[in-house]
């Protein structure tokens, strides 16, 4: 899977989860296309017994179905993903049972999603890309682009140039492709850090994802396949620094208390890491012969685990738009073609960016009257089956790949 020509139909900058998924989806739907993945740090081989990484994603059933169609899920070791069948969400100051419970059996589905190791998912995607004759790779950075009416010329860090009909920026929150496109972003800091670690609880998680809203931000305990749970705690930078500096026993005490000991004592079973939280979206996800997907187009608060799934939905729509254009004999980089992608994704992406920010702010308000009204609202919501099913159904969805990629 090396470069053998300077001319391609599609160039994808970024070899993360979203970029590789797009490469596979388009290659399967349209095998005649020439696709190149450009990244200065291409994936490295991972052994099946590699420990589960600290960064995990809560994949929806829709996203998982797409990975099955792309023959990616079968390459995932069972030791690196854990389906969850229930999810409990509750507010600080009340018991876990007074919150909202989502149950797969009650909804008539096998599971609500799967907590999945990002590193191993990327490895599985990379294996499938390497096996595809239509996908090439270049281990270089993009140094600049020049766009004409017929193609986009991509200058690489080694001085070489690649020409493509369409360039897709899948290079993350600090996207250089977005900058080269001249696209502005709207964004804001949440004044929070996400603290991540793996914990071993006294009580079996039983395939249940837990989330408790604390005054400084939500705490999530996500089930892993080895009886551990993945911690994702959103909190203030000062509190995050304090927790990271604690000795292990005191750290375990603090997390056990923060979780209301719903899984008994939590014991640290990994390193600890943190990263800053912000929301951001590109004012315009397309430009002449260019498009943005995933975090390059939108970054959201992690409280609902929807960031990766939004990116995979981008992939499904863009792959379908490309497939439809090819069937109609159209240029896949033309503005009218790319505008179909923008129209199909803008509303969902904007709603999710602002919606998650609103939820995070609402649950951060700890005053008595507002907090009590919020808790009553959660109890009411838990009793209204239709409302819960609609909300869960929205969160469980996934974009639909083009027919050729599903067969």
Salient structural properties:
nine-stranded mixed beta sheet; disordered N terminus; 36% helix; 407 residues; globular; eight-stranded mixed beta sheet; alpha+beta; single chain
What's the pLDDT, averaged over the residues?
Answer: 90
Largest sheet: 9 strands, mixed
Into which percentage range does the β-strand content fall?
25-35%
Give the % helix: 25-40%
- For the secondary structure, the number of strands is 20
Integer-rounded radius of gyration: 22 Å
Find the structural class using helix and strand composition. alpha+beta
Tell me the overall shape.
Answer: globular
* pLDDT < 50 stretches: 1-5
Distance between the termini: 24 Å
Counting DSSP H or I runs of 4 or more residues, the number of helices is 12
Protein topology:
Elements lengths: L6 E7 L3 H13 L5 E4 L17 E4 L1 H9 L11 E4 L1 E6 L8 E4 H4 L5 E5 H13 L4 E4 L3 E6 L4 E5 L4 E9 L6 H6 L3 E17 L6 E7 L2 E7 L5 E7 L1 H9 L2 H11 L7 E3 L4 E10 L3 E2 L2 E3 L5 E2 L7 H21 L7 H30 L3 H16 L1 H12 L6 H4 L1
Parallel strand pairs: 1-2, 1-11, 2-8, 5-13, 11-19
Antiparallel strand pairs: 3-7, 4-7, 5-6, 9-10, 10-11, 12-15, 12-16, 12-17, 13-14, 14-15, 17-20, 18-19
Helix pairs in contact: 1-4, 1-8, 8-9
Protein model, in words:
This protein is of the alpha+beta class and 407 residues long. Helix content is 36%, strand content 29%. The protein is built from 12 helices and 20 strands. The strands form 3 sheets. Strands 5, 6, 12, 13, 14, 15, 16, 17 and 20 form a 9-stranded mixed beta sheet that branches. Strands 1, 2, 8, 9, 10, 11, 18 and 19 form an 8-stranded mixed beta sheet that branches. Helix 8 packs antiparallel against helix 9. The protein is globular. The relative contact order is 0.17.
């Amino acid at each position: 899977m090396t470069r053998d020509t300077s001319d391609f139909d599609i160039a994808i900058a970024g070899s993360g989860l979203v970029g590789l998924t797009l490469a596979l989806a388009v290659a399967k739907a349209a095998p005649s296309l020439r696709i190149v993945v450009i990244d200065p740090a291409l994936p490295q081989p991972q052994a099946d017994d590699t420990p589960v990484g600290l960064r995990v994603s809560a994949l929806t059933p829709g996203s998982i179905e797409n990975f099955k169609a792309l023959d990616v899920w079968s390459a995932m070791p069972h030791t690196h993903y854990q389906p969850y069948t229930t999810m409990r969400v509750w507010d600080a100051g009340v018991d876990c049972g007074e919150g909202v419970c989502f149950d797969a059996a009650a909804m008539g589905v096998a599971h609500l999603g799967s907590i999945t190791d990002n590193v191993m998912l990327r490895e599985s995607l990379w294996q499938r890309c390497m096996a595809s004759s239509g996908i090439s790779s270049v281990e270089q950075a993009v140094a600049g682009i020049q766009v004409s009416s017929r193609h986009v010329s991509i200058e690489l860090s080694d001085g070489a140039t690649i020409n493509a009909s369409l360039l897709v920026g899948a290079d993350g929150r600090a996207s250089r492709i977005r900058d080269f496109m001249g696209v502005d972003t709207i964004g804001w800091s949440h004044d929070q850090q996400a603290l991540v670690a793996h914990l071993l609880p006294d009580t079996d998680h039983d395939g249940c994802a837990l989330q408790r809203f604390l005054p400084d931000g939500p705490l999530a305990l996500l089930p892993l396949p080895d009886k551990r749970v993945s911690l994702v705690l959103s909190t203030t930078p000062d509190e995050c620094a304090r927790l990271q500096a604690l000795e292990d026993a005191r750290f375990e005490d603090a997390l056990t208390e923060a979780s209301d000991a719903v899984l008994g004592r939590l014991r640290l079973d990994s390193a600890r890491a943190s990263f800053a939280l912000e929301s951001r979206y590109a004012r315009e996800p397309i430009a002449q012969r260019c498009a943005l997907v995933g975090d390059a187009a939108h970054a959201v608060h992690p409280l609902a685990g929807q960031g990766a799934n939004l990116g995979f939905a981008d992939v499904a729509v863009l792959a379908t738009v490309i497939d439809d254009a090819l069937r109609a004999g159209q240029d896949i980089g033309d503005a009218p073609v790319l505008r179909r992608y923008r129209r199909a994704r803008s509303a969902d992406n904007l709603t999710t960016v602002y919606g998650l920010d609103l939820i995070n702010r609402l649950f951060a308000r700890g005053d008595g009257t507002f907090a009590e009204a919020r808790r009553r609202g959660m109890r009411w919501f838990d009793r209204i089956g239709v409302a819960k099913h609609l909300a869960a159904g929205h969160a469980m969805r996934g974009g639909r790949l083009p027919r050729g990629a599903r067969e």
